[in-house]
């Protein structure tokens, strides 16, 4: 099948826009009665999380940031300790692996050389090799004991977008399963989370509606030399992903930081030319992140706040810009906030005139070491 841009200027724009639909596909696949009454997880046999006391996650690039978000979920929802490493480090680190653990590999292509080598290293050392992949016929899918498709559809743009949010969705559902198996979540709590999930495609559509506002501030972002992304909790790995997206396609130097680490280094970079993008839904960590944001403002940093209406009302004053997202259940915030992060990268790259779908020096799938 030939994949077309279907009226979009770039594959990346098309793939960003497809997210509500492909995420709904993934939900229909993994959730019985998704959107209906009494939704229930429908995961394949062989995922009994009482069998393990540790989960090791390995991936590269954007997929590795999906793992970082998932660590917060597995630990908080299921009390399951997680290790994470990028595949290129993991494979040579000689990490001791326990027979009471699973190793989980996340890869859009399923062909990334380092991730595949890491999988082969883990084989026979862990109880099970699980893969979360987009390409079900890929090497990683075939060599895993259990492969879970993310159902994002073919992704052409080099910078991963819809694969990331579908990876997050599948990992969140796994974390719910883990919480249920390990007695940390009641059946009613799992159901409540699944009911929240059913709202996600609609919330994502709403977030896509920010494109116009984002486009109009992208000219100014395009002038920046450096951009910082800040987040706390599961929004921290999202800050890493936002920075990766921006640098990949606009070639602007961008870094993601845990908000609380700001004072341990990056605050030295702040002046009135450095945009600081703060990812902060109005959750229990909001006040902490806002106080970090105020440290930036006190040094004349240009803050772009991404929050919900309550967060923007509370802390938007004095920011350079604020974007209002819909209110979202905590678990789903990283999935929703990925969209404005992608749109910021996309529109900034357009403003700079770079090749969005084929950024220089990058490959969609890195099949060499
Ligand atoms: C390349 C791509 C990224 C991707 C990474 C991992 O760097 O440009 O978008 O996140 O590889 O790829 P994978 O196929 O293993 O997810």
UniProtKB/TrEMBL annotation:
Residue ranges constituting the SIS domain according to the UniProt record: 45-184, 217-359
A molecular function (GO) term: carbohydrate derivative binding
GO BP annotation list: amino sugar biosynthetic process; carbohydrate metabolic process; fructose 6-phosphate metabolic process; protein N-linked glycosylation; UDP-N-acetylglucosamine metabolic process
Compartment list: Cytoplasm
Reaction equation(s) it catalyzes: D-fructose 6-phosphate + L-glutamine = D-glucosamine 6-phosphate + L-glutamate
Record's keyword annotation contains Membrane: no
Main location: cytoplasm
Keywords: Aminotransferase, Cytoplasm, Glutamine amidotransferase, Repeat, Transferase
EC code: 2.6.1.16
Active-site residue list: 364
Highest taxon of the lineage: Bacteria
GO cellular component: cytosol
Function: Catalyzes the first step in hexosamine metabolism, converting fructose-6P into glucosamine-6P using glutamine as a nitrogen source.
Name of this protein: Glutamine--fructose-6-phosphate aminotransferase [isomerizing]
Organism from which the protein derives: Gemmobacter aquatilis
Annotated gene: glmS
Full-sequence range covered: 241 to 609 of 609
């Amino acid at each position: 099948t030939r994949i077309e841009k279907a009226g979009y200027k770039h594959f990346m724009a098309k793939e960003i826009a497809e997210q509500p639909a492909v995420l709904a596909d993934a939900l229909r696949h993994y959730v019985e009665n998704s959107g209906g009454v009494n939704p229930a997880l429908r995961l394949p046999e062989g995922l009994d999380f009482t069998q393990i006391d540790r989960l090791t996650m390995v991936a590269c690039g954007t997929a590795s940031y999906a793992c970082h978000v998932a660590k917060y979920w597995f630990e908080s929802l299921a009390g399951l300790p997680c290790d994470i490493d990028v595949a290129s480090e993991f494979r040579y680190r000689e990490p001791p692996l326990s027979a009471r653990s699973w190793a989980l590999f996340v890869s859009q292509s399923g062909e990334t050389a380092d991730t595949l080598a890491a999988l082969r290293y883990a084989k026979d050392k862990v109880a099970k090799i699980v893969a979360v992949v987009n390409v079900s016929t890929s090497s990683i899918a075939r060599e895993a004991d259990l492969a879970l498709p993310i159902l994002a559809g073919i992704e052409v743009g080099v910078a991963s977008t819809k694969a990331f949010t579908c990876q997050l969705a599948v990992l969140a559902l796994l974390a719910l399963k883990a919480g249920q198996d390990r007695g940390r979540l009641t059946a009613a709590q799992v159901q409540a989370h699944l009911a929240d999930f059913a709202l996600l495609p609609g919330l994502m559509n709403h977030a896509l509606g920010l494109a116009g506002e984002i486009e109009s501030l992208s000219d100014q972002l395009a002038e920046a030399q450096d951009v910082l992304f800040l987040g706390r909790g599961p929004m921290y790995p999202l800050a890493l992903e936002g920075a990766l997206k921006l640098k990949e396609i606009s070639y602007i130097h961008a870094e993601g930081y845990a908000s609380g680490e700001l004072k341990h280094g990056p605050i030295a970079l702040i002046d009135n030319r450095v945009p600081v993008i703060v990812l902060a839904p109005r959750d229990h960590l909001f006040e902490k992140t806002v106080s970090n944001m105020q440290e930036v403002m006190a040094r004349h940093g240009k803050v772009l706040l991404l929050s919900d209406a309550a967060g923007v009302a509370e802390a938007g004053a004095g920011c350079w810009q604020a974007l209002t997202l819909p209110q979202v259940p905590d678990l789903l915030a990283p999935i929703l906030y990925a969209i404005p992060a992608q749109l910021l990268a996309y529109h900034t790259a357009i403003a700079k005139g770079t090749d969005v779908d084929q950024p220089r020096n990058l490959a969609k799938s890195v099949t060499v070491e």
